[in-house]
Amino acid sequence: MSSLYFDIREDQWPLVYDDKYNVSFCGFEKFHVFDAKKWRNIIQYLIEANFITRECLVKPLEAKENELLLVHTKKYLKSLKWSGKVAMIAEVPVVACVPNILVQHAYLKPMRLQTGGSVLAGKLALDRGWAINVGGGFHHCSASRGGGFCPYADITLLIRNLLLHCGVQNAMIVDLDAHQGNGYQRDFLGVPEVYIMDMYNRHIYPKDEEAKRAIRRKIELGNKVEDLEYMLKLRKNLKAALHEFKPDILVYNAGTDILDSDPLGHMRISEVGIIKRDEFVFEICKEQHIPVVMLTSGGYLRKTAKIIADSIMNLKSKGLIGHRHKE
Fold it and tell me: What average pLDDT does the chain have?
């Protein structure tokens, strides 16, 4: 059994978060488009709305080397001890000049904690019918290569643990981040137990043609796609995917970089469009009795934290999530 798994109290929600998720890099994080406090801000909005208390939340364990080796090569993990390598993955060149001990503490440790959160959320989704890691979704990282701000392959690790330890026979990944999820795609190339549906902007990073061979249902969008086209394609394709393949669990990579004016996604989905998107995914999972685990993934504007918080509250108001057992 994974050392990252543990049972939670009945009064806790399967909402996984720790304040140590947030990246603080002596102010260097200001050089990056990413809101390094996004995860804290989501929780802050939920608390201010009297939606949750801190006692409701589940604090995960950090994914240590022995857990990471279930997916990653020793060579790859060793390469993260070089600040230049981490700077390339995080896309913050100045990090190359920072002593690695500080890089480990300020950036990689929070990422390992979020990775542990994704693994735990997978198990909690089986137990409760749903779970949300308020972090994770590092979909550009594979066993031997990081990139696009993603240093650890948390999606691969989440699924491998479920297949190994939890009696899960198969899984579906539904990736609705604006970017192609090439990391786990490389890891699951030729693995029939994992069905991948990926809907992304074909004009932006990473354009990984080899990884695309792993996608069973590929929906390539153009720049500036708007709500109506997006939702029609999502509804049609997710229904078709679930007709083709019946998963024991659905891993939902819910990136918010599809938002209009996101500097990297180049799409035009409204705030309401994102909330409706999440609602549809949870609704179809509930209808078909499929446990769903949501990861927050990409989303680079300061306002995305409030959208994610609003979406979680909307899921509750629609009766799609609740803290009781498989409510």
Answer: 95
In one-letter notation, the amino acid at residue 315 is L
Split at pLDDT 50, 70, 90, the class of 160 is very high
Average pLDDT over residues 75-86: 98
Two structure tokens written together for 40? 């804290």
d(CA 273, CA 281): 13
Task: Give me the residues paired with residue 197 across strands.
Answer: 174, 217
Residues 249-258 pLDDT 10s? 999 999 999 9
Phi, psi of 274 (to 5 degrees): -65, -40
Does 30 have pLDDT greater than 80? no
DSSP string, 131-190: EEESS---TT-BTTB-BTTB-S-HHHHHHHHHHHHS----EEEEE-SSS--HHHHHHTTT
Q: Mean pLDDT across the stretch 3-10?
A: 96
Which amino acid type is present at position 5? Y
Q: What share of the chain is helix, strand, coil (3-state, %, to 5)?
A: 45, 15, 45
Active-site residues, by number, are: 140
**Edge to edge, what strands does the sheet with 171-175 contain?**
15-16, 130-133, 292-295, 249-253, 171-175, 194-201, 217-221
For residue 37, what pLDDT is reported? 87
Which H or E run contains 104?
none
* Residues in Cβ contact with 175 at an 8 Å cutoff, skipping those fewer than 6 apart: 139, 181, 196, 197, 198, 199, 200, 253, 255
The whole-angstrom separation of Cα 256 and Cα 258 is 5
Name, in order, each residue with C-beta under 8 angstroms of 309's C-beta and a sequence gap of 6 or more.
41, 42, 43, 45, 46, 49, 51
Choose among 56, 64, 65, 61: nearest CA to 14: 56
